[in-house]
Amino acid sequence: KWNEIPLAPPDKILGISEAFQKDTNSKKINLGVGAYRDNSGKPIVFPSVKKAETVLLEKETDKEYTGIIGSKKYQDSVRNFIFNNSGKDASGAQLIKEGRIVTAQTISGTGSLRVIADFLKRFNSAQNIIVPKPTWANHVAVFTDAGLSADFYAYYDKENNDLDFANLKKSISDAADESVILLHACCHNPTGMDLTPEQWEEVLAIIEQKKLFPLVDMAYQGFASGSPYKDIGLIRRLNELVQEGKIPTYALCQSFAKNMGLYGERTGSISIIAESGSQAKAIESQLKKLIRPMYSNPPIHGSRIVETIFSDENLLSEWLADLDSVVGRLNVVRDKLYQKLDKTNYNWDHLLKQRGMFIYTGLSAEQVIELREKYSVYATEDGRFSISGVNEHNVDYLADAINQVIKK
Ligand code: PMP
Fold this sequence. Notes:
Helices cover about 45% and strands about 15% of the residues. The protein has 15 helices and 13 strands. The termini are far apart. 4'-deoxy-4'-aminopyridoxal-5'-phosphate binds near residues 219, 257 and 263. Belongs to the class-I pyridoxal-phosphate-dependent aminotransferase family.
């Protein structure tokens, strides 16, 4: 039997990094991985995170297990941060008061998605999920490995490098009633193209009418506007619709990987909005029952960093400033690249509409391969470029390479 185990294909994104490592061209650029790099191409630790770690180093007195769904402090501060904006979001505050939001620490965003997928498999009547086409490369595998069936709804028009809103609405309308629908809260991965508030209203009306279950994935909170409090328009609207009784329940998968730079600390959360406080208690108990045999409980270092930052006003402001400067740099290189790209035969305007860590160039697989082979510019073959790999020192080289490749 073991002789028959077939070789699995390597992970596409991680495979690119491996090839990049081997390349000896000093001008090589890695645009594959969605992790932040500073202007000299190096990874960073947010200064506010370092400070929180200094506090922990002095004050931490144990390395005991946390709860199955994390500490109460983590749950409360994350819930308050996302749904209450420290008292400024009326609908979210009311839902918290009614005890209707269950928040659990999870193993970052991926763990959060997997936990909700297993939960839906167990308790949701619909066993299918629809996800945007395209979506983050791991989404479908997470849901289907948990036993849900996954299908796509239209999202992006590759011909015109724009949101395909008419088909998006149509394909959501055509989905089976009560299906689970995956929504990217902001900075849609891989396209960087989000819905406007007006477009969200139209989509939410279809969701309400068809009784779809919204599952929101928020991996880039803060990367659209620079402020995490501004990037939660969809969450706010959902809270209002829940309050009005138009949408009964929804779930939010969230990650601090990008917006606190806690990638490898695996720190995130799942929040489930229940119809009542008593339903929330049952959901919470079932989350514990589900997680305990899976990994027992989540890691504590990242969650203690989050707790430390959220419980100190100065650290919180410092973190908001750190995040703003990270996003600011990405926007600067996005604009610089746009300016240097040759627009005679190629319309690059979509770059200016896209937000987040990626640009979805619209380049073909052949063009991406040519960039890799001739110019040592590494990106996934769907034409998604992580602009965190771009900086003042390589933006000219990159623009020249792209201009050469599109010339033909
Ligand atoms: N959702 C989306 C859309 C993502 O882009 C990512 C990370 N690339 C994740 C979820 C999960 O990230 P993590 O598990 O590192 O928090």
